[in-house]
Amino acid sequence: MTHGSVATGHLADVPSWVPEPARHYLAHTESGTSIRALARRAGCHASTVLRQIRSCESRRDDLLVDEGLRRLGRQVLDQAFTGSQIKEVIRVTPTTCDDAGCAALTETRLTAEASRILRRMCETGAILAVSAEMDKAVVVREARDGHASRTAVVDRAVAEAMALKSWIACDAPGRILRYRITAAGRAALNRMLAEGENHAVGFAEAQTSFDYACTKVPGKKPGASRRIRYGVAETPLVALARRKDRDGRPFLSDDLVRAGERLREDFELGQLPAPARGGSWDVFLTDIADDCTALSKDIRMADARARVVGALRDLGPGLGDMALRCCCFLEGLETAEKRMGWSARSGKIVLRIALQRLRRHYQTLGDAGGMIG
Questions:
Q1: pTM for the full predicted model
Q2: Which residues, in sequence order, are bridge partners of residue 152?
């Protein structure tokens, strides 16, 4: 980075994902760069930059936006230049923050985390809840019994970034702030899913590297496939939970759905890749074990993978296969039955048994089983 680029208001310490209005705001307020200098660099009129700065200032009533700008302000250059004069800028060191949260949020990490969280927020009745006292934000969804079930945990830095990019918006002020996904957030999610499909074959709504989501197309050459899309607003478990048994009760209770979502959350947190061979339960566990050596520097991801392995081993073959396909790969029951070579309508019974065993597994682990309850 040259001194000239700093003089024109380019902030080297600000990540590339930060939207232009926020970059201009930080350059002006933290580095003291003039609006005209920013406009020259951006190739636009000074009034455009002024509107951007005023817009960012007006959004600071939003908790996540305000904290996001504060966090980014701490990453601005130690030295800011005004003409040929050097003006020292004191870097503020956060006093209370965990290492993971305070580390600069990269564009790669934001894309991975936002893809996971925005998918959850597309589900019916889902919101992101946060308060000033909470170390992290959480995604919750209201269950049939009126209780809210937690479906995802979000690092504050990621939540702040999504608010800064207007992917989520607060619908009402209060002690607990409730954010919902915006049209911009849905458009961003669609772009992420499309980009993932360009690089790998798999569910648009699941991890982009999965190759399980391809089904053979009759009459086409081997290898030809069609991608299965499961609506992000409704997962296979949620759809099955709406069905009634012969006594008129929901086929899946809310606690069974939560158990399946807990497995899915760890699966996504672990960013588990598709195994190179087949798609069975035992091959999947073998591939995870083979890949563990690459995770020595990412404890959070390694812990999530370990929890997935522990849960699947407790379920064993058959039950583990069904839980893996329906909860993690988001395969529908009919698709899972065909892949497993089972008779029609047998899958839902196996899935319910698998979820009952999974619920017992998490109850045994307690808090050691992860953050999703």
A1: 0.67
A2: 139
